[in-house]
Fold this protein.
Amino acid sequence: MVWKRGVEGSVVQDAKDLLETISKLQSDVIILERTLGDKFVRFKSILFYLRTLLKEQTDEILRLEESLDANAELYRSRLDVQLQSQRNGERALTRQVERLESDNRLLNSRLRDEWSVALEVREMRTRIVEVREEVRDKRCQERKEPAERRQMEIELRDEIRKEVEMDFRHEVLDVQKQLKVQRKSEMKINEQIIAKMETETEGLRAEIGHLREEIGSLQGQLADMGKAKQSVVEQREKLEEMLKKSKKQSEKAARDLKRRLEESDRIRNATLAQHTEVLNALKGEVFDLKKELKKEKTELEETRLRLHFEKQLRRKTLEKHRVQNEKLEDLQRLLNLTMSESDDLLMDTLLGEDRAAIFAKVSFLLSKIPIVE
């Protein structure tokens, strides 16, 4: 009975240890799955952050490129407008120069006319000198002629000369007046044209200087924009390189994580398989132990029933022994009473007389003694 209780206690203890081992293995599996889930969530958050950062950088680069293209187009259009304005100014200046050249040619033609007039005046003076010489020669010849005729010719020649000189002087004065007026008007016109041209030239020079300054500013802005674009390109290349490195690291991390997950899945599957095998084995053992326990309980119950039966049987036996002992004591008292008489004669008489009663009494006492099996 004690051995059966020990077996029952060891079976219960083994079942408790088995349940504790199973719960520990389940908690280890849950912790492992939770750790893998946390790592996977962390990896997904890092990957999402990198993708978001890449998208923001790409959008910023596209925005900068669009702004750069728009600014370049704006500056190009402004530069084209200013260059067109400068070309228009140059054309206007060229037209003014051509007009001045035409005016200069006109002045040169007038100067040539004046020069031709001066030549004609010189020729007229030469002609006058020749006429004077002729007059002198004629005077010399006339000296040889009669005085009256010579006097008349002289007077006539003097009158002709005076008339010619007066006409010549009037013509010369008219020509000089015309030339003087023409020169004054031409000088005023030239001065006005020159002043206007100088003013327009100064304005054009100022405008050209302003355009050059704007061109320099635009070139500086274009250079700054080129530097900014180069900086953006370099930053983009750095970002692309960082993205490539991050992508490689992410791919490597993903491969490592995948490998770890596969390894973890393999280990988990192997562990689960082992745990399943152990659990199945333990379940089999538990089933066997439960079966044995049930069998032991059945045997224990049977033993208890037998023990109870034995106890009842023992009580009955003890009761029978007690009754037997009492009856034997009664028989012993009877026999002692019978054997205690010292008078044999009396005993013989009593036995002779009450033999049947005594044996009947002994038989009655013997019949009351229980038989112990």
